[in-house]
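Deliverable D5.2: sample structural annotation.
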Amino acid sequence: MGRFIDSWRSHLLVTLSGNSDGRPKWVEQIATGDDPGFFGPGSAAWAVHGGMATMVAGIRALLMQTLHPGAMAGVHDWSRYHEDPLGRLSGTIQWLVTVTFADTVVAERESGRVAHFHDRVAGSYIDARGEERSYAAGDPELLSWVHVVFTDAFLQSHLLWDDAIPGGADGYVREWAIAGELIGVQDAPHSADELAAQLEAFRSAGTLKSDARVADAVRFIRYPPLSRGMLPFYNIMFAGAVASIPREYRDMLGLKRSRLPVIWGTRLVLGVVRALLGPTSTSEDAALDRIARIERAQQLGHPSEP
């Protein structure tokens, strides 16, 4: 049993961070810098993105993103998710964690990296009305859609499976609007009500659609190339993510809520993961080290050394 647990923990760390010790190379930059960052300890962003529910939130966000044909075209045309799914996952995690825990300079630099990648992502797609439209990853509509479904997924997952959020749901949405603005999102929601209204606006306007591309992406998310030992746990979290999605979107995705108690089962799996990985992440630890260094330097009356 001990060997199985060690193996499963190693597989989990590689999946989430790219290496078996759970400390990817980019964590080192989180320890550098001279300010607490855009959020800091005790913030809503730290609470949500440092929680275990992020594992389910990522699944929900990926599923929801597929419903915008422009966003789906960008993934289909430019992403190598079939060939390198963990590479794409790692890139997304890097941006999320860096903006959350790094100092402001590093967070802005990481957001610039993402925006620069978006510069070359362009093409055309057939919209929900059957008309051909051009797209670019930096289009305001696409940036808004990705930000809204991302924020909604992480918020709703945390409310279902994790502890209270400092400042509540409004606090998280308001804080994470900063991250959206860093990559060019216009009119990012600043409250839970605004978030819900913007999400509903995409649906009621007839912008979203389901087609063969969506079905292929959903199938890939449903059956990712994970190790055999991780699949049973992933299957439960996938079912939990599906159960957390409102029915109108589940129907578009061609997914049905399981009749089994998957919300409870997901909570159990996340508890196991928390026991294996510990209460804090290497990224949060690096951020706390940076902040402690800054505070020591301030007490001594001289600038901190990065």
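Annotation notes: The CA atoms of residues 215 and 253 lie 7 Å apart. The chain has one domain: 37-300.
The annotation will be released with the project's public dataset once the embargo ends.
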